[in-house]
Amino acid sequence: MEQQHIQHLYWRASFGIPLNLVSTLQQQSKNQVINQLISNSSLYKPLPFKDLSEFTPFNIRQTSNKKDIRIKSGKTIQKLNLQWLEYMVNSVGIREKMALFWHDHFACAPRNPLFAQQYVEILRANALGNFGTMLIEVSKSPAMLTYLNNIQNVKGSPNENFAREVMELFTLGRDTVYTEKDIQEAARCFTGWKINKEGQFFLHRKKHDTGVKTVLGVTDALEGEDVLLLLLKQKETAYYICKKLYSYLVNEHIREERVQILAKLMYQENYEILPVLKAIFLSNWFYENENIGTQIKSPITFIVGTQRQLNLKISPPQKQIYVQRILGQILLSPPNVAGWKSGTYWIDNNRLMFRLKWVESLLKAVPLSLEPPEIGDDNDPFQETKEAGKMRIEVKLDEFMNYVTGNTDKKDSHEILLNYLLQVNPNPSSIPLLRRNITNEQQLKSFLSKASKLPEYQVC
Q: Which Pfam families did the record assign (predicted)?
């Protein structure tokens, strides 16, 4: 594979490629590279988090000091955020990038650490598995039950919030085959979905409507799971999911004929996710120039990709929550159930200036301070993360030096590094500022600082 195509695959399927893999993978075929990437993702490993039983509904109710438990909950969710971020940096497959996609798709902002952990692990465990299985597990998760008010959904007084969003945002998409009546009837099917004192899903029979309902043309004594299975039977669901996958992995400018082929495949494969991903990554069109370097890196992709590409580790890790707040994307805290926006939304004046200076501040250990946007909710677990200041890094630049010296017989050192750092060619006017020999660590840091300020560094 060409170097640019390998890097394109790793940026879209993961968070960029570590430098030490570039030369190795160029000796392999496309099939070999993709199979290895998928193989590296096959083993699911839970985040190494401590027991969170103190945050069960029962134990929280027994706590007399509600302020202390709120503060402790917030700090614990922050730790979960950072653990997941660390897994993203160190992952060598596609599981974490896809889990981030599903976090945006099944957008949820849990306030209980136990619920947050359950939710994250559902996404990570099912990220490459079966969409239907994940849909059912997320729908029954305490995080989603509380976020979309389904625990208030009871017989005789149905709450339509979850029923509406599961159709509009999680399966069929807006304005498709369902009606307001379908939403109302589906809400009855989800009545009695509750959380027990241990923090697990259960069906409260007395609160559940066992009557006959009609949803999407089917009339029966339908249960909540029956509705989810009905939604999966609609081909519109496969199309909606594949359209979002295409936008996330390929290009926000949708090619209708390609999405239709992917949707047909997903439907035929009973909503298995991996066959669709393989079809995308093995296609020739995925590597066409029109799809390379066309995505503005989301904040999480930018934060994780920079650490992976430059082989650096930020300390203390808590500083990265501040960076997430500044850049506008906080793991476990999407703005609403519709998830995050994308594209040019990530680039306003403040965010762009921070992006342009952040890598330099890391490499040169210069404090970089900017007041993050306010969070309106005082109970938000990320409300307290305003601290900026100096971020220390551990950085191993010897790999870069070896990479440069091992290739300088073919190209100038600045060209070698730019080919790795950027997916598109920089503006010609930038080249004179970067054209210099790199023979020591100081020169390399200076080069990386300047290269990271290029507009082309913001896209992948």
A: DUF1800
